[in-house]
Amino acid sequence: MADNYLERQYEEYEKRKAAWEKAKRLGKVKKTPQTGSTPTTSPGK
Prior knowledge:
The structure is a single chain. The chain is mainly alpha-helical. The chain has one helix at residues 2-26.
């Protein structure tokens, strides 16, 4: 049972990786800014 689970997880990983690499080659991967990293300004100062 564990072998089947691990095999399925690895196959899904390979599919995601292949899709990511294909998108990267085509220039469709966009970097998203991290939330919470922008400085906040306090109003009134």
